[in-house]
Design a protein that fits this description.
Layout lengths: L2 E10 L29 H13 L2 E9 L9 H9 L4 E8 L6 H7 L4 E6 L6 H6 L2 H7 L3 E6 L2 E8 L7 H7 L2 H4 L1 E3 L3 E3 L2 H6 L4 E2 L3 H9 L14 E5 L5 H16 L2
Parallel strand pairs: 1-2, 1-7, 2-3, 3-4, 4-5
Antiparallel strand pairs: 6-10, 7-8, 8-9
Length: about 260
């Protein structure tokens, strides 16, 4: 029997997006324009899975992210390959829902779960999608949920009147269970340490990986990463472009 790693693991496959969210943890890290993602081709994805196979590891959930993963020109091939590997129980994808071309929709129907991030751009995208024929079609094949994000975390900044400590930051943070990041060379317990490129685990041996994932010892970065961090209202770094892409996305949904 393979060793099952509980929780959700994020596979970032692209370093671009059709939105320009201020403070995006992988495309505008710490609001200084830092891009911490890399584009993964199918060969890179295969290398990630080969690590799991070599160490006889099985994931509870593998989650495809970007940037915006539906912009990846080889998304269909990547999804087909992942589904053929039998290295996870559930395959999910997180999207901003603004690139629902017929080809992309056909790919998304193969998933177990689709998470649509909804940002406060003019109309409510979630309401538009749920009233559409697109939603009826998608939801008959895949579990669709909506993640409304009206604010972004200001990583490293404390909220007022909340006590913080390394231990409290670790205990409060949901990312250690739901936002683990899996790459060709390393495994991270959260997106923040992935962006910092610290507190990672290599793929040297099975027990090392299992112990890393099951550890309840705070990471070193927890000492300087208060949780919950301060929240800021969602903003765009390029509102004219984001508005244009939003309208294009709405047209794709309504004309499906």
């Amino acid at each position: 029997m393979p060793n099952v790693l509980p929780g959700s693991f994020d596979l970032h496959i692209i370093d671009t997006c059709n939105l320009n969210c201020k403070g995006c943890v992988v495309l505008d890290y710490l609001q200084d324009g830092r891009i911490t993602n890399s584009r993964y081709e199918l060969s890179d994805v295969k290398e990630v899975i080969e690590n799991l196979t070599r160490l006889d590891l099985h994931l509870e959930e593998l989650k495809i992210l970007g940037g915006e993963p539906t912009l990846h020109t080889n998304l269909d091939e990547i999804v087909d390959y992942l589904l053929s590997t039998n290295r996870f129980d559930f395959l999910s994808l997180v999207t901003n829902g603004l690139n629902f071309t017929p080809k992309i929709v056909n790919t998304l129907k193969k998933l177990d779960r689709l998470v649509i991030s909804v940002y406060p751009l003019e109309e409510d995208l979630g309401d538009i999608i749920q009233a559409s024929d697109l939603y009826k079609d998608l939801s008959s094949h895949v579990d669709v949920s909506f993640w409304r994000q009206n604010g972004f975390h200001l990583w490293g900044e404390e909220e007022d009147n909340i006590p913080y400590s390394t231990k409290l930051n670790w205990e409060r943070c949901y990312q250690k269970d739901t936002c683990r990041v899996i790459t060709k060379k390393h495994l991270y317990r959260c997106t923040t340490t992935y962006s910092e490129k610290k507190d990672m685990c290599t793929w040297d041996n099975t027990q090392q990986v299992v112990d890393f994932i099951n550890s309840d010892i705070p990471l070193s970065h927890c000492a300087v990463c208060p949780f919950p961090p301060k929240l800021q209202k969602w903003e765009s770094n390029n509102l004219p472009i984001d508005t244009k892409n939003f309208h294009r996305g709405i047209n794709l949904i309504k004309n499906y």
